[in-house]
Recover the amino acids of this structure.
């Protein structure tokens, strides 16, 4: 009798643990990307200062900013919309070829539609790195970006 | 003396402007597809921030792309791609440097679609390999559309796939490149 009870308990606990693991795997597998709008920025920085920092020391800056949530404020140099409707907001000084290029998250696309050249905006996004290029100008790229406040 | 300097400057300007035009984009699109027949779902990522430059005079062509910029539908897949496969924290950038080997057959002044063969060195995950692929250049109204699609063997770039999912992820990855290039004003 006692033995049967133990077996029952063991079976039950295996079932519960198995179920929990199953639910965890299912949830993890279907996990959606976090909406950047709800993320707290790790760094808040001006576009030109950020560009300067990368220019001066790419390695150290990459280490500091890569995969971090950045809130970057700057002047809008350009807003582009590609053939599939994805927006990019390009921040920086018009006198320089270098910019902070922010790919706007598709669910926040319509917020980018109202951004115009010359606006000062802050954009929150995830830093995916730096593309140094003497001829075309160097770029810092933010992905999954959202528009913060306009000024 | 002053005139000589002026003349030299003018000559230099003329020389550079006749050097053939460069075309570029900073929003090139690269699709990455490692779906295998045994995959339970599509393993696809897309990057819309590739830089590409083509020198129409020499046929030189270059790409640069940040690995972290590949977006996957599933967050977990994107994390695996970055952390386990391409290790983008160690190798944030992929690059291609090469040339259009039949560049002289393209008339960049005339609208049309031209078949090209591009050959060069592709660096992914810190590994460099020679690749060659056919592609298409479409010249239209002073702009160029560049398209190519080719497959790479992941093991060539030392991208290892864990045994557990080895049959679920293709051993080759298909790369589909599509760039709309504009003339570089200098």
């Amino acid at each position: 009798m006692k033995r049967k009870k133990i077996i029952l308990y063991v079976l039950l606990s295996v079932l519960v643990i198995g179920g929990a693991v199953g639910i965890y795997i299912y949830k993890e597998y279907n996990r959606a990307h976090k909406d950047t709008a709800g993320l707290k920025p790790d760094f808040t920085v001006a576009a030109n200062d950020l560009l300067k920092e990368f220019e001066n020391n790419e390695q150290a800056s990459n280490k500091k900013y890569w995969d971090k949530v950045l809130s970057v404020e700057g002047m809008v140099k350009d807003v582009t919309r590609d053939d599939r409707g994805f927006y990019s907001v390009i921040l920086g000084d018009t006198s320089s070829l270098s910019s902070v290029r922010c790919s706007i998250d598709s669910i926040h696309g319509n917020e980018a539609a109202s951004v115009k050249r010359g606006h000062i905006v802050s954009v929150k996004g995830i830093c995916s790195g730096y593309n140094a290029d003497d001829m075309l100008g160097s770029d810092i790229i933010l992905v999954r970006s959202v528009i913060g406040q306009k000024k | 003396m002053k005139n000589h300097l002026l003349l030299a400057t003018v000559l230099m300007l003329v020389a550079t402007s006749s050097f053939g035009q460069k075309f570029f984009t900073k929003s090139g699109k690269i699709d990455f597809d490692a779906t295998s027949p045994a995959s339970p779902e599509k393993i696809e990522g897309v990057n819309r921030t590739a830089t590409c430059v083509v020198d129409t005079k020499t046929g030189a062509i270059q790409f640069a792309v940040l690995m972290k910029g590949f977006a996957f539908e599933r967050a977990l897949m994107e994390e695996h791609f970055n952390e386990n496969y391409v290790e983008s924290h160690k190798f944030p950038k992929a690059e291609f440097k090469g040339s259009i080997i039949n560049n002289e057959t393209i008339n960049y002044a005339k609208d049309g679609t031209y078949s090209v063969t591009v050959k060069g060195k592709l660096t992914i995950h810190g590994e460099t390999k020679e690749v060659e692929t056919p592609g298409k250049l479409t010249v239209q109204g002073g702009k160029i559309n560049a398209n190519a699609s080719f497959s790479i063997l992941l093991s060539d770039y030392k991208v290892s796939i864990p045994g557990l999912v080895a049959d679920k992820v293709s051993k080759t990855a298909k790369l589909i490149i599509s760039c709309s290039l504009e003339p570089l004003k200098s």
Summary: Strands of chain A lie at 43-46, 69-81, 87-91, 99-104, 120-131, 139-150. Residues 36-150 of chain A form a domain with the OB fold (Dihydrolipoamide Acetyltransferase, E2P) fold (CATH 2.40.50.140). DSSP finds four helices and six strands in chain A.
